[in-house]
Amino acid sequence: MRDLATLQFVEAHESLVLLGPPGVGKSHLAIGLGIEAISRGYRVLFLTVQDLVQELYSTLADGSTAQKLKAILSHDLIILDELGYLKMDATASDYLFQLVAKAYERRSLIVTSNLEFQEWGSLFDSPATAAAVLDRLLHHAHVITLKGESYRMRSRLAPPKANGTLPEGSAAPALRAGGRGEGGTPT
Asked: Which of 164, 93, 102 is nearest to 123 (CA)?
């Protein structure tokens, strides 16, 4: 994470893929890196994959898909959160492929997913589209797999101490190495 916090991957137009079950900190890390990138003058866009698909679907009515993709791709770092929670139809699969293909070697992507790569074939409309997305996304990528219990569930299931605070280890740790912690505060 210290190497990623230098943002060399953004300068080199590489991608970062964060994999793991819900609640292990994928989005937290992606947001922390995004905030650090903004503080260094990079243009950053954060979207859930569902929001991306909805925004691109809305362009069907007026034929402005190419312009919308161009606007998205004007950012140095594009963070796509929550890939894998909803199966994509042919149109959504095509949109995501177009974005990844156009960003390839030109822009940096951070993608978070709860699915292992071998499961992506069932997420996209066709396994061929999943393979094409993975081919481009992973060619120049850093892949980090996070494991563990959900921070959200851990803090909900842990009984509070007598003084009302949570037991040690039940709150999510802040992003270190020059990143940002909870609420965007420097750590």
From this structure: 93
